[in-house]
Amino acid sequence: MFKKSLLATLALSAAPLAFAMQSTTPYLGASMGVNVNSSTNVNGNAGVYRGVPLKVFAGYGGLINSSFYLAGELSGVPGSAQMSNKNNMRTSYGYSLSLLPGLMLSDQTFAFMRAGFVRTEFSNVNNMATGGQLGVGMQTFLTQNVDLRGEYDYTAYRTVSGIHAPSADSYDLGLVYKFN
Length: 180
What we know:
Blueprint: H1 2-20, E1 23-41, E2 46-63, E3 68-86, E4 91-104, E5 109-122, E6 127-141, E7 146-157, E8 163-178
Antiparallel strand pairs: 1-2, 1-8, 2-3, 3-4, 4-5, 5-6, 6-7, 7-8
């Protein structure tokens, strides 16, 4: 219930802001990188998973004024290639909803923060986990419609079936296609 009311509050508060934004546009993108999940299980054993996830995302964003950027984004991870797995920390798929406020560094580049909610499937224990995500990144213009994006995200999950306080560090590089 809390999540539904928080999402409704965010949507209602963002609606007037969308009308005030100068140049908004929908976008699609994809990225790849390295994801590192870590935690301890109930026996105190450390668990670490390293994988290469494919992330796809769709969003809507633009400039609030000449210096500030704001976007809302929905992303999904349909799969992840495993590099290493110790003590059931593998994640296979997931999705997230995020808000991306940013600051223009030049006419073609901006830095942004990410704040959102994540839902991920821990495949070795066959359990979905919910977490909060914070991140930082940069996005820069390559062509009129294509941007290059790099970012780091940290996700803290609730305890999952014998895995105590799992967390994830994600480093991604991707392309964004803007529909303008």
